[in-house]
Specification:
This protein folds into two domains: 48 residues, no CATH class; 102 residues, Rossmann fold, CATH 3.40.50. Helix content is 41%, strand content 11%. The protein has ten helices and five strands. The protein has a five-stranded parallel sheet with strand order 3-2-1-4-5, sandwiched between helices. Helix 1 crosses helix 3.
C-alpha cells in the first residue's frame, strides 16, 4: 500500500500482521468482490481486478460509461487575474493549491509547475509517499497542514483567497465536511479554477 492508513484498513479486515505470506494466504480465502467491499467499508482502498467485459456490466462501470470523461461548469463569478504569461513559462504567476494524492493529481500539478505556475502542495502531517515523493513534489513548494484543526482551516481560507487554481483529490465530501464546499471556495476566490480528480467518486 502507498499509504499507511490504507494498509492498516486492509490488515484490519484481513486480521493478520503486515507480512506478505500471511496477507496472501488470507486474501486467497476471500471472494474478490467481498474483500473489495469489506476494505472499502473500512475506509481503505481496494479494487477487484476485472476484465473489460466484467467492468462493462459492473454497476460502477456502467455509471462511469454513462458520464462524460469530465464535467465542466462555468460559474457566474469572475475576478480578473493579472497573469504575465510568457512563451517560456505560459503559467508564470498562476498560483495553484495542490491537495492531491498519488498519482494523477500530483503529476498534473507537476506539469503546471513545469510551465511556470507557483504550486503549493499541502499534505496532512502524517501523510507519506516515500516511493513516489520525488515524482509528486518536483517543482513545488510543500507544506504539511492538519485541516482538522480550526486554526489550520483559517490558514487554508487565506491560501484559497490568493489561489487561482485548486486541484484536489480527496473523497467527494471531504472538503465540504471541513467547511470548504464548492460554493464557499468560490466565495473565497471568485473565478477560482476548481479541479476535482476523484478516483473513487
Amino acid at each position: 500500500m502507498n499509504a499507511p492508513h490504507h494498509r492498516d484498513a486492509a490488515l484490519a479486515v484481513l486480521g493478520v500482521a503486515a507480512e506478505k505470506d500471511a496477507v496472501a494466504r488470507e486474501v486467497s480465502r476471500w471472494a474478490a468482490d467481498n474483500l473489495e467491499t469489506a476494505v472499502m467499508s473500512g475506509r481503505g482502498c481496494a479494487a477487484t481486478m476485472r476484465s473489460i467485459a466484467e467492468w462493462k456490466v459492473h454497476p460502477q462501470g456502467q455509471a462511469v460509461a454513462g458520464e462524460p470523461l469530465l464535467h465542466l461548469s462555468i460559474g457566474d463569478t469572475f475576478s480578473p487575474r493579472d497573469w504575465k504569461m510568457s512563451r517560456q513559462q505560459p503559467f508564470k504567476g498562476v498560483r495553484v493549491l495542490d491537495l492531491t494524492r498519488v498519482l494523477a493529481g500530483p503529476v498534473a500539478t507537476r506539469f503546471l509547475a513545469g510551465v511556470g505556475a507557483e504550486v503549493l502542495r499541502i499534505d496532512p502531517p502524517w501523510w507519506d509517499e516515500p516511493v513516489v515523493v520525488l515524482e509528486v513534489a518536483l517543482g513545488k513548494r510543500c507544506a504539511r497542514i492538519d485541516l482538522r484543526q480550526a486554526s489550520n482551516r483559517e490558514l487554508l481560507e487565506h491560501l484559497l483567497k490568493g489561489a487561482d487554481v485548486l486541484i484536489h483529490g480527496y473523497r467527494p465530501d471531504a472538503l465540504a465536511r471541513l467547511g470548504f464546499d464548492a460554493e464557499h471556495r468560490q466565495e473565497l476566490s471568485p473565478g477560482l479554477v476548481d479541479v476535482t480528480l476523484d478516483a473513487y467518486g
